[in-house]
Structures are given as C-alpha cells and as structure tokens.
C-alpha cells in the first residue's frame, strides 16, 4: 500500500457462483459497504476529499469466477484479524467469501504491480455448439505455443489495440473433456509487462488455427495468483505479511 | 416449480449488465413456496436499475413475505438484448429471487409509475407466456394486477390488466391474497368468479366488471355489470404511516442503480396544490411519519445497508415538520465509519431550504435544484406554484454565497394560458440567477431543464388540451434560441448565456405520454399495436419512434388530437370518472376556473379547508407534527380564506386538535423549493 499506514491489512477472498456476473467496480462497492456495515475503523487519506485507503488487486473480468482475489486496506487502529474474514463474509453478497486476513508490512508494493503470475482453469466450447475434437484442439494449442508471437486485436481501456499474447502464456494444457464436446484448459500467464486473459488466449489459438472454429469460454476460474521475487514463488498472503503476526484463515 | 438459472446463465455472457438478472441483493428473500400460498411476482416494467429502488415495490415485497399465506418475488423488464435472447431460447420471464418462471406465480403485479412503460407491461406479460388480453386468459394463467400512480386512469390498459389497485397498497395486498388463496383452495375455477370477488375489495378496480358505452367519440356511460360492484372505485389510503415502517430491510443492489442510497419516506401526500401535479392531488391528505420513527429508520437503515447516503423522501421534504430535528440528528450522531450524505428532494424555493442544505453539506458540494416550474409570476399563479421572483433570487443568492457553483432550474412548458412572454421569462430568470452567482464565483452556472407539460387525470388541468408536438417544439426552440449566445447580441446577454445550459424532454414523447395519460379503453389497442411493432422502453429516446404511435392511431381509426390537444368540456364524462382519489370533480373544475382567473390557493395544512373532498369523504386527517407552517409559511396568497369550513388536523402525539389554527401569514409569500439537495455531514 502506498504511503504510510497504521494497520495495513490484506485479505484473500473467493468470488464464486451467480455473483460472478458483477463487475470489478461492483466488487469494490460491495467491500466499501461491508466496511461500513462492520464499522471498521478505516484510515482515510488526507486532503480536500478524504477517501478510505483501499487498494484492489488485478481486475477480474465480469463473468469470471475466482478462488483467490486479494484486497489491501488500511485501518486506523488494530482490530481482531482472527474473526475478520468471517465478519466480512457476512456483510458481503453470497458467493463472496473472505477466507484469510494478514497484517502487512509497512509500505508494501501495490498488488497490481507485484503479482507476476496467474493460474486459470476454464472450459472451452464452440459458439455454434458443435462438439470440439480434443485431439484437434490439443494440436491447435501446440501450434499456438510453437509461435514466438501472436498479435491479436483486443479492447483495452475502451480502445482497440494490437497486442502480442504469446509472450504472456507460460503454459496451457488441455486436461480433460467434460460432457458433450467441450474441453478444459489449465493456463498460467505472466502479468508483466502485459497479461492475457483466457479470452485472449482463445483468440490467439483461433488466429493460428482458424479451422478450429468459433471457440468460446464457458466458465472461467482464476485458481491462484503468485508473487515471484528473488527466485521465490510466494502467495500474496505470505509475500509482504508481517512475520510475527499469525495469518488468520478460515478453513 | 423449476429453477431456470441453468438456462439463464448461458445467455448472460452476451448481454449488457448481466448482474441485472442475478438478484442476490442484501435484504432479498428466497421465499419458501407451498401449494396453499399465493405467489406474487412483483414487477417493475422498466430496467432493473430504475425499478430496483422503487420503494412501493419493496414495501409490498416485505409485507407479502411476512404473511404465512403468500410468497413474493421480483422481476424487472429485461433489456432488449436479453429479451431477444430469451425469445430465441424460448426462455420465459423469470423472477430474480429464485429464478422461477413467471408462469408459476398466481399474480403478476405491475407497478406503473409512468405511462410510457405501458408497452413494457404487454411485453412482460407476453414474455411470461400469458395471453396479453384479459379475454384470452384461462384459469391456469396468473391474475394480472397493476398499481401505482398511472392507474388513476386505468382505462388504456382495461383490456390487458385483470385488476387495478387504486391508491396505496399496504393493506389491500393482504385482502387480495385472501381472495386468491380461497380461489386456489377451491381449485382455481373460472376467472369471472374470482375477478368478481376481487372487484368487491375496496380500492380494487376490475375493468371487465364494467361496461363502457360510447356516443360517437364521447363516453355515454360507464356502468358496473353486477349490482354489487361499486359504481365508483375509491382509492385506498393508509391512515398512519407509523403503522407501516417499511421497507424495514431496503434492498441493496450489487450494481449501481438510480437513487442508490438509503431512502426513508418522511411523509405521503402534499397539499401545496400545484395544479399540474398528479402526485400531489392523488396522494392527499398529508401524513407525516413521526420524527422519532424517521430517526430510527435512518439509523437502522444505515447500519444494515452500509450506504453512505440517505434521502429523506416525500413530495416536498423541506415541508416535513420534523426536518430540522432529523437533520440535526444526522449531523450529530454519525456512525463510526466515514461520512453520510443527505439528500432532500423538495419543492420549496426559499432560503430556508438552502440553509438546511448548507447545514448538512460540509464536504461534498453537489448540485442544487430549484423548481420554479414557470417563467412568469402570472403563469405561476395559474399553476399554483406561488414562487415570487424575489423568493427564487434570494434562494439562489443564499446558495451561491454559501459556496454552490452550479444550480439546476426545472420548468414546464406547454402550460395552460402560456404565451411566449412566459416561456421567454424562463431565460430571463436563468440569466438573472447566473448574474447573482457571478458576484460570488466567476464559474457560476445554471442549467435550465424543460419538460413538456402533459395533463393528468384527477388534477385541475385534466380538462386542458395539451400542446401538440409542433407547438411544444416551437416553445422549446424559442427558448433555446433565446438562450443561445448570438453574434451581435448584447455583451451582457452573451456572456451570461454562455453559462446557462439548457436540457429538454422530447416533445414527441410528451405526445405519447398524453395519449396514455388521458386515453380511454380504445387507446389500449393503440398501445398494443405500438408494442407489436417493437415499441418497448418508450421512455428511452433510442427506442421511441413517434411514427409507431401515429401509425397505430391511424390503424385504429382514432384521431390522436381528440385525446391529446382537445380541451375537454365541463359536462363530458371523463374516462376515469368511475375512479376517485376523493377529490370532488366540482372542486377540480372550480380550481381549473381559478387557474384560468390566475388565482392561487393556499396550502390547507396550515390554512382553513377548502373542501377538496379527500379528508371529509374518507374521514381522514392531515397528520403533521407541527401546527405551525414551516419557516417561510404556507402558500400565502393575500386572499381571505377565513370564512372557509374547517377540517380537523391531527397532530402527531395525538394532541387535542386546536379549534383555531394559526392562519397563514400573508407577508410570508410562497416558498417552495428545490429538488435533490445533496449534502454531506
């Protein structure tokens, strides 16, 4: 969290089920209301228009689910972190579950800058409901991974831009076939300098192998986020936590 | 009995704002269904963002779910992208609470707060898989009910809605539930019998129980088909708001909606007597909630919802007797986390309101809105919006001097007796306000918002022939051109005009609204044709096409001018004459004549009764916390009202009624004010 903070806290939460159809901004408002419901002693910024010091991690696209989202905020005085996850969960909509809270070191880097890798699992189908042939699909993924660069046109901050997607993909494996004609992919991407979403990866696969047909993501789950620093691969819960404070995680 | 979610979810990836369809709001219910329970689907026929905050729907949602013999869920109009997907996949309209098919419910209950949503009602009934016309429905279909302000002229929807609730719904929904529970228990025999039973409930109007006879274009008679069905349906009114502290658990949506804040209703009804205002006329008398009860609802609501803004709602909140106490309470006892903003929708235009706003607005300076409604004192007397120019200027001066920089002024055009001088008076007022503002701030600006006047049923202006599209447009453009800085015009004018912005409503939409507001049963087929031609979401300009309405009128052989621009005759039977808000028709006619004579009328809360009919007919009383008119006084009109009959006024706290109430101070001329005053404490 930028600037000094009295009692900086990081929480981990999941976003699962119907609530996945809310946006990143909606999630921010859910937390702001939850903080007020619990009357947490939030620390406010200085200045003409004071606002609570809250810092969100990487945005999660509307419609995507996640097992691991993170949020940093700053309190003006210590509170019981043991009970915080459960209390926050009761003040949030169904499907939003806070399962861990840690006290952070002072002046830790912002989540959006410090998370370097994200793991996804998602189901792929065809928009025209034609069954996907698993072998053909695996071949198309391999063809994409064999490229050095795959430039796709995507919308970023409301503008259409041409970006290389291949550079972000660390690995993409087709793990199993579920139900009629869909496949499940496990994907790991780098977030720096520019990340790629499952949707971008599908676009890259279709660009390299147009014959694979109109692929669509059917359900997308962010499995985990990682901070890689000095050769270590750390959970955001461990990376910047104050060592002497026990992590409070709900089972 | 099915949960449609597995079929709904695949559609969501491709529609705008998918969270409109997921429900899950804090405060929402997952009611337990049972065969003996009457299942209500409460429907707001506009987008989720507009419908979710509706307090009326939320109140009924809670009352019904508290009953052992009812369940209530909610539905909002799916946006056009979702509606197309649903039709393509043969997915019916569903509730957002448990995602059940609308057809599983016993009642589809619509909230109609504006006429331009009428086509959406047809769209939603059709999406529910229910025949749109009453006559085609069979016993297995839900009963289609509608309530809300627009049902005070129910006739345009008489062939599409089985039963209308006229007035306030708190009590009547339970009575309807009991009739329907008995009907279900008896095996849902034919619809005629159950509709007949519903027609016997006070406040319920069942159009199929009435026969309308025409004499050419005129209505010759409207008569009940059964001797026990009332010839006139009276509105329902709740006597004491403190008995109904709802909603107790205001819904907190997951996405942004309009009025996205805690809303606490401080009173119902308004007796300021603005002649164009249907809401003020049909919700009489004034019934205040006690100050204590308001403070409790605010404190508990903020704690429960996590909102950081609260609106004290009513038709004119600065008139609430307890306003100063409530505001002081909010300023002083803040919850621990952060600041709470307060908004006060109000009609008053006076320094009192600005003072109130300054008191609560320490941090966030948002806009301030005043509603003088007409550009000249003469016309303001006609419409009984008794704001003197000096009242407005002193309010504006007080606001700019307390630090506001932007101001919005609301006006109507197309009012009775309006001439161009009145219309151009709007520009003059706006420029003068900017000039006052520039004394305090170089960036001072004023936004003028102009709406086309549409006459409404049960108001003194119900006889007035509204301005046609061309005339309304001419007036709007006359004003726009006058406000537009022109080369060669006076320097002062040009400079000031740069800081007057103007917004206006589409004159064509006002025409369609007029057709629905004062139409009779024959207009129903016009509405159906517009809907069949794809005309949903008519309040949204991108979906409104005047040609659809004109074509539909032509196809039905109806002259739209007859319904809109024609002045009604004194002894003509109006399509809504068998519905009453308690206002005597001869009172309304007299008030219409007073309007034409440019005479104002005072607020009867603090002046003697002029016998509009409501209190006397319904044995109701104004319930106000203070026997003294709020700062600034009643609508004093310098006229002597002392020889008028008196009606009892009950004061909160059940104090004995004083036999002689303080009369209005003639020196304290009208003050009215402002709309959302946003403020932060």
Quick structural overview:
The complex is a heterodimer of chains A (251) and B (681). Chain A is of the alpha+beta class and 251 residues long. Helices cover 21% and strands 37% of the residues of chain A.
Key descriptive features of the protein:
heterodimer, A: 251 residues, alpha+beta, ten-stranded mixed beta sheet, two-stranded antiparallel ribbon, 6 helices, 21% helix, 37% strand, B: 681 residues, alpha/beta, six-stranded mixed beta sheet, 22 helices, 15% strand, disordered C terminus
Account of the protein in words:
The complex is a heterodimer of chains A (251) and B (681). Chain A is α+β, with helices and mostly antiparallel strands and 251 residues long. Chain A is 21% helix and 37% strand. In chain A, the strands form 2 sheets. In chain A, strands 1, 2, 3, 4, 5, 8, 9, 10, 11 and 12 form a 10-stranded mixed β-sheet that branches. Chain A has a two-stranded antiparallel ribbon with strand order 6-7. In chain A, strand 8 (169-178) and strand 9 (182-190) form a beta hairpin. In chain A, helix 4 (134-146) packs across helix 5. The relative contact order of chain A is 0.21. Chain B is globular, with a radius of gyration of 25 Å. In chain B, strands 2-1-3-4-5-6 form a 6-stranded mixed β-sheet. Chain B has a 5-stranded mixed β-sheet with strand order 18-17-16-15-22, covered by helices on one side. With 681 residues, chain B is α/β, with parallel strands linked by helices. Chain B contains 22 helices and 23 strands.
The number of distinct helices of chain B, counting runs of at least 4 residues, comes to 22
Evaluate the radius of gyration of chain B.
Answer: 25 Å
End-to-end C-alpha gap of chain A: 27 Å
Poorly predicted spans of chain A: none
Question: Helical proportion of chain B?
Answer: 25-40%
Report the principal-axis shape of chain B.
globular
The share of residues in extended strands of chain B comes to: 5-15%
**Overall pLDDT of chain A:** 91
> Biggest sheet of chain A: strands, sense, closure?
10 strands, mixed
Task: Find the count of extended strands of chain A (DSSP E, 2+ residues).
Answer: 12
Distance between the termini of chain B: 48 Å
- Which structural class is indicated by helix and strand composition of chain A? alpha+beta
Order of helices and strands of chain A: EHEEHEHEHEEEEHEEHE
**Helical content band of chain A:** 10-25%
Spans where pLDDT lies below 50 across 5 or more residues of chain B: 632-681
Widest sheet, order of strands of chain B: 2-1-3-4-5-6
Structural class of chain B: alpha/beta
Radius of gyration of chain A: 20 Å
